[in-house]
Amino acid sequence: MDQTVTKMVVETYADATYTARQKEFQVLFNPEKYTLGWAFNFDSKELLKGGSTTAVLESVTRSVFSMDFIFDGTGVGAAALDRKEVNVAREVWDFLETATVLNRKNKRKPSPPYCRLVWGNLCAKCLVQSVNMEVKLLDGSGKRLREVRKTTFRAVYPDERVALRGGTAAERGSRGILPAST
Fold it and tell me: Across the chain, what does the average pLDDT equal?
């Protein structure tokens, strides 16, 4: 059995066709876990009437999933990347510039990059919905040595897959995160 550890890669593309790759970011440490969820929205008028025996589904919010990305400058992170050192602030900005509309020049990109997370059987096409910072370790001068970026993604489903299954995306709602083989 192959025990090689495969690092998660965040690839970015200009649009939802996912044809021309723009950037790639390799995570320092693979996430330990991720959460995946959907929201089901019902017609509140029908529910309030009380007479209806069936709830009317209005929409399904596409799948949203969250992962924690660890950035470590204590030496453990450098060893993981086979480097002399890791600058946490630089690594965080590399991630933010790759996967979000933010950049170091304090200017926003005109549109968010379309991301594709590739790791083992996971191949998720998505957009970054939010990123929260949790500083875990500081040195004596206040420099960040370890940080966790709690990142939430919203799945993107190409129109051609929607068309193949009949109906509109809104009528069918979420399709879930697709394995790499599809």
Answer: 79
